[in-house]
Write a structure and sequence with these properties.
This protein is an alpha/beta fold. The chain contains 18 helices and 10 strands. An 8-stranded mixed beta sheet has the order 5-4-3-6-7-8-9-10, sandwiched between helices. A hairpin with a 2-residue loop joins strand 9 and strand 10. Helix 11 crosses helix 18. 31% of the residues are buried.
């Protein structure tokens, strides 16, 4: 018996060897069994048209030829490239700077009202920052907390987030938070549990309350409450050692060019206060001057403090010079965010504006930013290299992507009292630069906040005294 007669002679009743093509009858490889065809791939390719199969590519090509002539292929391709470029240009630059934020504390004001500010928090939490969110209603931030917890890499690296009740429209609520924050004797545990007499640590403060429509949202007691909150956090900010990089951010509207820069433009008239662009521009200029004057106040306060040894300096290092500090106060413009700026602007026109917004949505989608794209400016202002120090590309303090040259570092450096948009300093006009350099105009804005705070404190004191008298009257009865 020859070997060829024995090899592979056992009949196959199941498995791969038991199936053959029903057309050629000899090919058992590459059998297509779907739909009960049982045809090899070679026979299927030869007989697919007769069976009734049609290539989808042929259908797509025929439809494209029927609706779009060949001569329009190039113009359509160029139009698509132009739309993609417009979308990328409108989104602005992306921040490439990163820092190790472990054991660094950031106080966030307005996260429950600003989607742009909320979109900036996941990156800070992923870098290890401790976030203190001030809100009048804790349930409003529960979805954000769930998102941050779900996006954390592991339960062991879950973000440190604390929600503190603080309603900026209620002066008593802000006062209660300020007393708790600046208390000399505190119990250990929680945020900033320290020994007696120590100042709480703050590495960043983000003010995003009413940055779009300030004159309407920052009226009366809310204006005084925000100023009281700022004054309550200043001791922790000024007491930071010079080696610590502390950032204070104020968000402003991109409509600031709507008013001509002048000292009178920071106090809008009753006619302009009714119109959204002028009202928003007036508040933006007001915030710019406030941020500029705040930097001057911090510089002046640092000059009065004695020089303290740097905890990060090696043993025996000389004391830093008097007045040296690492506190930077800047104004940040997120740009034309679609859900906050554009919608608020067009929504103020009533139902006509809302209908027009939906009709123009494809165009607005291309030419406006999402909240996450607007948050890139916030990330740059918080994580960008400080202008007063040398930047280490490989160190743990500040790092950027590979290929970052010194010219880009100089362009994207964060200067004290600066104004930033799209991850770079805003080129100011001559009139606006003159206004920001006017110390008297900035001091008027600061004094206006001080006056509003004083009047609100007197009103609160009178109301508290009246409630006390009523309570005593009830007890006597």
């Amino acid at each position: 018996m020859a070997h060829s007669n024995v090899w592979y002679s056992r009949p196959r009743t199941f498995g791969k060897g038991s199936r053959m093509c029903r057309i050629c009858g000899k090919n058992g490889n590459g059998i297509i069994r779907k739909y009960g065809l049982d045809i090899c791939r070679q026979c299927f390719r030869e007989n697919s048209d007769a069976i009734g199969f049609v290539k989808m590519l042929q259908i797509t090509t025929s439809l494209l030829h029927s609706y779009l002539p060949t001569k329009l292929y190039l113009p359509v391709a160029l139009a698509l490239i132009a739309l993609l470029w417009a979308r990328k240009w409108a989104g602005g630059r992306r921040n490439t700077w990163r820092r190790d934020l472990h054991q660094r504390v950031f106080v966030v004001v307005g996260a429950d009202t600003s989607p742009t500010l909320t979109s900036s928090l996941p990156l800070l939490a992923s870098l290890g920052a401790t976030l203190i969110l001030l809100t009048p209603s804790s349930p409003a931030l529960y979805p954000l907390l769930n998102l941050l917890l779900l996006t954390s890499p592991s339960p062991a690296s879950s973000p440190s987030i604390f929600i503190e009740p603080c309603d900026t429209s209620s002066l008593s609520s802000v006062q209660a938070f300020a007393e708790k924050w600046n208390a000399k004797v505190r119990t250990a545990g929680g945020v900033g549990g320290r020994q007696e007499g120590e100042v709480r640590r703050v590495d960043g403060v983000l003010f995003g309350e009413g940055w779009v429509d300030g004159a309407r949202e920052l009226e009366g007691e809310k204006k005084a409450g925000l100023h009281l909150l700022l004054l309550s956090l200043l001791p922790s900010v000024v007491a930071a050692p010079p080696s610590r990089d502390v950032r204070i951010l104020h968000l402003i509207s991109p409509l600031y060019p709507a008013l001509p820069p002048s000292p009178s433009s920071t106090t809008p008239s009753s006619a302009s206060a009714k119109r959204f662009p002028l009202r928003s521009a007036s508040h933006a200029l007001d915030t710019l001057l406030l941020s500029k004057h705040l930097q001057r106040e911090i510089d002046a306060a640092a000059q009065t403090l004695p020089a303290v040894p740097d905890p990060l300096a090696p043993p025996g290092a000389p004391l830093p010079r008097k007045g040296a500090h690492g506190v930077v106060s800047v104004a940040v413009c997120p740009g034309f965010v679609r859900g906050e700026v554009v919608w608020r602007w067009m929504g103020g026109w009533g139902w006509r504006g809302r209908v027009l917004y939906r009709l123009l949505f494809p165009l607005l989608y291309l030419l406006s930013k999402t909240p996450s794209q607007g948050a890139e400016a916030i990330h740059h202002a918080l994580l960008g290299p400080p202008a007063s120090r040398s930047v280490s590309f490989n160190g743990s303090s500040t790092s950027a992507a590979e290929g970052t040259d010194r010219a880009q570092v100089a362009e994207e450096a964060v200067h004290p009292g600066g104004f930033y948009r799209d991850c770079r300093a805003v080129p100011l006009s001559a009139d606006l630069r003159t206004l920001l350099d006017d110390e008297e105009a900035a001091k008027r804005v600061w004094d206006d906040r001080e006056r509003a705070l004083k009047e609100a404190m007197e009103t609160l004191k009178a109301e508290t005294a009246g409630e006390g008298k009523e309570e005593e009257g009830r007890k006597e009865r």
